[in-house]
Structures are given as C-alpha cells and as structure tokens.
From TrEMBL:
It is an enzyme of class 2 (transferase). The chain holds residues 3 to 194 of 241 of the full protein. Keywords: Cell wall biogenesis/degradation, Glycosyltransferase, Teichoic acid biosynthesis, Transferase. GO terms for biological process: cell wall organization; teichoic acid biosynthetic process. This is N-acetylglucosaminyldiphosphoundecaprenol N-acetyl-beta-D-mannosaminyltransferase. Pathway: Cell wall biogenesis; teichoic acid biosynthesis. It comes from Companilactobacillus alimentarius DSM 20249. GO terms for molecular function: N-acetylglucosaminyldiphosphoundecaprenol N-acetyl-beta-D-mannosaminyltransferase activity. It comes from the Bacteria. Its EC number is 2.4.1.187. Catalyzes the conversion of GlcNAc-PP-undecaprenol into ManNAc-GlcNAc-PP-undecaprenol, the first committed lipid intermediate in the de novo synthesis of teichoic acid. It catalyses: UDP-N-acetyl-alpha-D-mannosamine + N-acetyl-alpha-D-glucosaminyl-di-trans,octa-cis-undecaprenyl diphosphate = N-acetyl-beta-D-mannosaminyl-(1->4)-N-acetyl-alpha-D-glucosaminyl di-trans,octa-cis-undecaprenyl diphosphate + UDP + H(+). Belongs to the glycosyltransferase 26 family. TagA/TarA subfamily.
Amino acid sequence: KNRIDILGTQFDNFTEKQFHQHLDYDLDTHANKFIVTANPEIVLSARKDSKFLKIVNNADYVIPDGIGIIKGANSLGTPMHERITGFDTLKYLVETANRKLLKVYILGAKPEVIKATAEKIKHDYPQVDLVGYHDGYFKDDKPIVDEIVKKKPDIVLVALGYPKQEYFINKYRYNADAIWIGVGGSFDVFSG
Ligand code: UDP
C-alpha cells in the first residue's frame, strides 16, 4: 500500500474526493473497514505506545486530520494531497447514509451529547436509519457490542476519544461488517 510515514504513522495520501469514492464503494459492497483520522496528538501518542501504533497502522484508512500533518509531510519531503478532517468525514458518512438510506449506530460522548446527536441526525438527515445509540461512559462493552451485532449497521461512529476508540474498534470490528470510525470529540461539535 502506498502510504506516507510521519514519525511511524503510515498515512494514506488521497484527495478528499478520492477518499469519498473509496467510502462510497465500501458502503455499496458492505465492506468491513476501519478509519483512523490521525492528528498530530495521535501521531505523538502512537510513537510512545507501540500497541496503539500497530492498531493505527493496521487500519484500512489513516487520514491526515490537521494542517500539522500536511506541514510535517511537506517538511519531510513527502508532500500529501490535503487535510481531511474527522469532522468532515463524519458529516460525509451521515450525508451518504441519508442519500443511500443506510443504517447507522452512534457510540460515545456524554449522555446529553449523544442524545442531541441522535436528535440532530433524525431531524436533519431523516432518511438515515439510526439503529441505536449509547453514551461513552459504560463499564461493560458486551451489551453494546451485542446491540451493534443485532442491528447490523452499515456505519458505526465511535466517539470515545483516542486511543480508547481505536482500541474499541480494533477489538470488535469483525463482529459486524460496517465502516467503523473513531470521531473523537466530533459529536460535541456536531450536536451543538
Ligand atoms: N469520551 C467518552 N468516553 C470516555 C472518554 C471520552 O465517551 O471514556 C468522549 C468525550 O465525551 C468526548 C470524546 O470522547 O465526546 C472525545 O474526548 P476527548 O476530547 O477527551 O478526546 P479527543 O477529542 O482528544 O480524542
């Protein structure tokens, strides 16, 4: 795979449009995919946590979330196309789910934030089949994973902050064929 190395993290080098074309294809074929949107904090944290680095580099897509990554790539002499943020990817996935009438499960953030996120999706993207949601402050993974398996979502959006969300996705992604993405604090912004 053609990836660009920034301090050990292996980034995909797409334009946002190319990335979206890959996602469209993945959704149409109901592929199992794991997206990491890596900002400079994630790169630095992966540098110190080899288990986390391995999880990041084993993801299907590692996207440069932040101008710091683009600048870093330029100064290392391996320029990348453009920044692609987690927030914009979240929006693209929800818009695409609305267009293609897909099933979405959302996990993470505080109870009031995930509820507001669910309400925003229902109101602004009425053709999304929102199959379930849960806040990000739970002790037992099992009931949540069981629900995801039962509801068969096309897309699972996980907002537990890094590295927790990437550990969670890496552990459970093969229980359900979907596009899985860690979206950090995006629900706090999206719902507001
Ligand atoms: N979060 C969560 N469970 C946790 C820790 C964090 O659901 O155990 C949520 C938090 O409410 C926020 C998101 O994860 O919506 C991102 O958290 P934070 O800002 O700490 O992480 P970052 O954005 O740096 O990944």
